[in-house]
Amino acid sequence: MSGGWNTIESDAGVFTHLLEGLGAKGVQFEELVSLDADSLHSLSPIYGVIFLFKWVSSKATDNKPEDGTFDTEAAENIFFAQQVIQNACGTQALLSVLLNIPDVDIGAPLREFKDFTIAFPPDLRGETLSNSDLIRSVHNSFARASPFIDETQRTSTDSDDVYHFIAYTSVNGILYELDGLAPAPISHGACLPTELPDKVVPVLQRRINRYPEGEIHFNLLAMIRDPRIRAKEIGDVETLHIEERKRREWVWENSLRRHNFVGFVGDLTKGVVKAKQAEGDDSYKSWIEGGKKKSEQRMKVLRAASMKEA
């Protein structure tokens, strides 16, 4: 395999443009700000959800997960790939939903990939996925540029916060948890596609409840039908306008993500310092001293507020 896989943000705009970059049509992602079935139902039809969480050591074994049951035979009938490299879990979770929804146009490249890997075991599917130039290049096109971190050389330590993406979707009447780090798909019982909001929320709540109280590092994205399709069908001009504006904002935000502004900020800072120095030593020193005084004042306010809270 040539090249590494960079980390990507859990963001609806990022994941929607990942879908489009891979060739899928008529689908997008929405971020959920509350975990309740009504919120999910309001987005129907919903194809699946992608859950981001802080990874912690699990009590699961190769024979039994912490919740649900392993369905070792399911991988023969659904798309499930084991994660074999670091940082690919976001795109892998996306594909775990997308490639298991028969009524979505996934595009020719992904259709060929799915047909090619259909008879592979999960580990070989993961290897094939990680070696796909198309999937890796689209994934990396939405990674935040950084001059400091080479993700191909990155290793985690005990003090690092490691985050992981997994997918939940209804396939063949079963609610499956598709985690590339698990040995097999995890079944959470019977679930028709229309029942997904009602069935997946309790599963997610049980998972969140396994974390210490106060843990807030979770994010949930729902893969849904592109709302613009329905808006055009019923002539809902207002919704169509809102969704088109959202898409334009996503394009702008993603263009910013592709650029590293560290050099720009550094040059700007140098320019400001040079201008201040040109005004004279006294001007430059007074500028520095003014900044120090403002910082000290902010710290005093913060200390006073913390003492009141205590």
UniProtKB/TrEMBL annotation:
Q: Where is the UCH catalytic domain?
A: 4-225
The Gene Ontology terms for molecular function here are: cysteine-type deubiquitinase activity
Protease keyword on record: yes
- Name of protein: Ubiquitin carboxyl-terminal hydrolase
Question: Site: Transition state stabilizer. Where?
Answer: 83
Alphabetically list the UniProt keywords: Hydrolase, Protease, Thiol protease, Ubl conjugation pathway
EC number(s) per entry: 3.4.19.12
Catalytic EC class: hydrolase
According to its UniProt record, which reaction does this protein catalyse? Thiol-dependent hydrolysis of ester, thioester, amide, peptide and isopeptide bonds formed by the C-terminal Gly of ubiquitin (a 76-residue protein attached to proteins as an intracellular targeting signal)
Sequence similarity: Belongs to the peptidase C12 family.
List the source organism.
Microthyrium microscopicum
List the residues marked with site Important for enzyme activity.
Answer: 179
Catalytic residue list: 89 (nucleophile), 164 (proton donor)
Its GO biological process annotations read: protein deubiquitination; ubiquitin-dependent protein catabolic process
Superkingdom of this entry's organism? Eukaryota
Keyword Hydrolase assigned to the entry: answer is yes
GO cellular component annotations, sorted alphabetically?
Answer: cytoplasm
- Mind telling me which InterPro entries this protein's record contains? Papain-like_cys_pep_sf (IPR038765), Peptidase_C12_UCH (IPR001578), Peptidase_C12_UCH_sf (IPR036959), Ubiquitinyl_hydrolase_UCH37 (IPR017390), UCH_C (IPR041507)
Lineage at the top is: Eukaryota, Fungi, Dikarya, Ascomycota, Pezizomycotina
